[in-house]
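About this split. The held-out portion is used to measure sequence recovery: a designer receives only the structure tokens and must propose an amino acid at every position. Recovery is the fraction of positions where the proposal matches the reference. Here is one held-out target exactly as it appears in the evaluation file.
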């Protein structure tokens, strides 16, 4: 949504609905694979579960040659650099300091931040200046990047504090899976693989929400920090790669249900359409 329109660089290229449609219309391509690849990868055991071709073609179609420096608003998009073993933040607002070394094509940034281990191969992303980074999904360490956004705004011009901000953190939903002690006590390396990833990512998200809540209630009544995170998916399958037509419609229904039951939605809309000029900052969740 932050990309500039082709006919007017001051207007957004995509609406919120078009952002949703990106996945609805391309999910089966992003998570598509041939019978031959399924066999070669042993269904994701020997290789990533999916080739990168589908998602890369989709991102190239939508974002073309748009650069990070061309985005309409400040943003921060996390990924994890597996070679240098550090979090990598793609931040448009830092370009004034670092120049072309920090500028990237948006489609490459999207590929890097969505390179979920076991699902897709890592992305070797190269900046406009030719610097390369091998990245995987930013959710590995910043599954809820609201705290990252807060720190960026906190260090911006004027150094605003929590009481000066209005933060809306929108999660992708969570379905807590219980791991019974009677089963977990006998797990070895193989048994813990999937639960460890689930726990680490859920835990990182919950810690960020906890810390944001503490900071905002310390300086105000906390009503200027809103976290929207559903646990009710209805009939939808929460597996990330279930892009079947039926499941996509079930996810849409779950999203609408979440919005209808959000007590803060009207307040969020009022803030967006008011005469206030709040800091607008985007972060990929």
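Reference sequence for scoring:
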């Amino acid at each position: 949504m932050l990309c500039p329109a082709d006919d007017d660089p001051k207007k957004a290229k995509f609406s919120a609905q078009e952002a949703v449609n990106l996945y609805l219309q391309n999910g089966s391509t992003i998570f598509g694979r041939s019978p031959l690849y399924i066999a070669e990868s042993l269904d994701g055991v020997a290789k990533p579960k999916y080739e990168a071709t589908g998602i890369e073609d989709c991102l190239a179609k939508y974002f073309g040659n748009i650069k990070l420096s061309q985005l309409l608003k400040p943003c921060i998009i996390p990924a994890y650099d597996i070679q240098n073993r550090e979090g990598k933040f793609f931040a448009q607002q830092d370009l004034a300091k670092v120049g072309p070394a920090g500028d990237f094509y948006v489609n490459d940034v999207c590929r890097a931040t969505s390179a979920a281990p076991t699902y897709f191969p890592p992305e070797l992303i190269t900046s406009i200046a030719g610097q390369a980074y091998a990245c995987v999904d930013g959710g590995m360490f910043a599954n809820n990047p609201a705290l990252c956004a807060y720190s960026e705004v906190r260090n911006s011009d004027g150094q605003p504090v929590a009481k000066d901000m209005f933060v809306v953190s929108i999660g992708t939903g969570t379905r807590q899976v219980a791991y019974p002690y009677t089963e977990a006590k006998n797990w070895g390396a193989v048994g813990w693989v999937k639960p460890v990833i689930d726990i680490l990512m859920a835990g990182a998200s919950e810690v960020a929400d906890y810390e944001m809540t503490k900071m905002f209630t310390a300086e105000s009544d906390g009503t200027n920090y809103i976290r929207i995170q559903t646990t009710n998916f209805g009939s939808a399958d929460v597996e990330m790669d279930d892009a079947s037509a039926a499941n996509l419609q079930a996810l849409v229904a779950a999203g609408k249900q979440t919005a209808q039951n959000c007590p803060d939605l009207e307040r969020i809309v009022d803030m967006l359409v008011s005469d206030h000029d709040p800091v607008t900052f985007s972060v990929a969740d």
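Annotator remark: The radius of gyration is 20 Å.
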